[in-house]
Amino acid sequence: MEKFGKLLEHWIEHNEEHIESYKKWIKNLNPELAELLEKAVRKFEEGNSILKEIMKKLDQQ
Predict the structure, then answer these.
(1) pLDDT tens by residue, 1-55
(2) Three-state DSSP class for residue 29
(3) How far is CA 29 from CA 2, 42, 45, 57, in A?
(4) Where are the domains of the chain?
(5) Strands, E, within the chain: which ranges?
(6) Is 7 exposed, middle or buried (0-12, 13-18, 19+ CB in 10 A)?
């Protein structure tokens, strides 16, 4: 499980890097594309929240 925990950390960090990049791009896009990319950002953030919840439960075991 230790390896899985390290993978979770990596995935969360990797997703956060992508989120920051997407947020920078949103400023340069037309409103329709920006709205879609914002939707994707929210999904990534939701996914990271779930991954963090998994990490928390893993730490409690």
Answers:
(1) 899 999 999 999 999 999 999 999 999 999 999 999 999 999 999 999 999 999 9
(2) coil
(3) 41, 17, 20, 39
(4) 2-60
(5) none
(6) exposed
**For residue 58, what pLDDT is reported?**
95
22, 40 Cβ separation under 8 angstroms: yes
Judge whether 20 and 9 are in contact, CB under 8 Å: no
In the numeric block, the tokens 């925990």 are attached to 5
- The residue count of the chain comes to 61
Whether residue 58 contacts residue 8, with contact meaning beta carbons closer than 8 Å, is answered with: yes
Q: Helix (H, G, I), strand (E, B), or coil: what is residue 17?
A: helix
Query: Which residue is listed with tokens 């390290």?
Result: 6
How far is it, in rounded angstroms, from Cα 44 to Cα 47? Answer: 5
Cβ within 8 Å of residue 23, ≥6 positions away: 41
